[in-house]
User: Which sequence fits this backbone?
């Protein structure tokens, strides 16, 4: 004997229950990520490494800038004595000095940006945000099982907003980490090596 197809009411009830279970699963996964701090740990490690690299690059750039300034000063003093014999050296060092100045300015901005991101990460990973997100998720699940709950849309918006604040920074930092590993790390390493070589050459002058 063939079973008759389910009624429209049963089908709607089945779809509704499935959506509720899906909501519970999504909320559970998000809260698990929030409380375990997986994104937080990876993001903090990425920021720490970026901060160290930025500080090292900035320090190298400032050291080179100081050496270039000393050499140019010595060149000007030598020019007074030897009637312009060293003018060409100063002219050659001017573009290098300008490039290093621009690099140090960029690194200073990068350091400030990293400090700001570390601060925002600390705030978004605080106990207050974790508890707030958990309460919002629990309230959303409970309201989903209350028939015609008038506040479910407001709770949904609140939960999405808290999820964005809690996890978006970590997600964006991990995306930056992926881009950095695949596209930028080699260039940054090469630039640092070039700065080191340039500094050693200037030390010899």
Assistant:
């Amino acid at each position: 004997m063939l079973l008759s197809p389910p009624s429209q009411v049963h089908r709607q009830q089945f779809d509704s229950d499935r959506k509720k279970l899906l909501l519970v699963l999504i909320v559970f996964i998000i809260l698990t990520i929030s409380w375990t701090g997986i994104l937080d740990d990876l993001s903090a490690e990425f920021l720490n490494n970026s901060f160290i690299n930025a500080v090292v690059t900035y320090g190298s750039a400032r050291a080179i800038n100081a050496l270039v300034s000393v050499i140019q000063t010595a060149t000007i003093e030598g020019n007074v004595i030897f009637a312009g014999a060293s003018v060409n050296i100063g002219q050659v060092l001017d573009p290098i000095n300008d490039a290093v100045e621009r690099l140090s300015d960029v690194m200073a901005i990068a350091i400030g940006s990293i400090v700001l991101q570390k601060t925002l990460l600390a705030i978004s990973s605080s106990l207050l945000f974790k508890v707030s997100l958990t309460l919002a998720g629990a309230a959303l699940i409970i309201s989903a099982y209350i028939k015609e709950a008038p506040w479910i849309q407001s709770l949904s918006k609140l939960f999405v907003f808290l999820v964005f604040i809690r996890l978006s920074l970590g997600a964006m930092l991990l995306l930056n980490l992926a881009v950095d590993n695949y596209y930028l790390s080699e260039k940054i390493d090469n630039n640092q090596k070039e700065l080191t070589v340039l500094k050693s050459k200037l030390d010899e002058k």
Summary: The CA atoms of residues 12 and 111 lie 55 Å apart.
